[in-house]
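Sequence in, structure out.
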Amino acid sequence: MASGVKVDDVVKELYETMKLEKNEKERIRLMVFGICDDLIKVKQIFRQKDLNEMKVDAFKLYKDQMMTGCCCYLLYDCHFEKAEQGGQEDLIFTMWAHDDAPLKMKMVYASSKNTLKDIFKGIKHAYEFHDCADCSCEADLAEKLGKTVMSVEGHSCKHT
């Protein structure tokens, strides 16, 4: 079901920048999107230099955007390590719709998700979370990324 919500052109431009920018300080590590006036817009952009200044790692910032009672979309440049392949970097698209968010808001975000996802060509990982426990630690995300993921953002992940 389509919602009629469109994607702001700025989102497309920033997605291309996020895919291509490899300068460690200028690299976009996380973008947060929201729906306003029937348009999916960028709410916040966090570059690596912002994370350095805030003294926070990208996973913690990603997780902290998933607040109780709200909805948003996230595009996260995740750095992880696989057992036999070493360091990896993949973009992760996430729809966050907390169980306690207003029903109408959850419905609009759910029905608009594919409109945004279609802009993000080549995304390997797309998740939908409804509770903070869905992705409470690096090991939770590592499990979703694959059995051979050993660490996320430099933090060891042990699978049970």
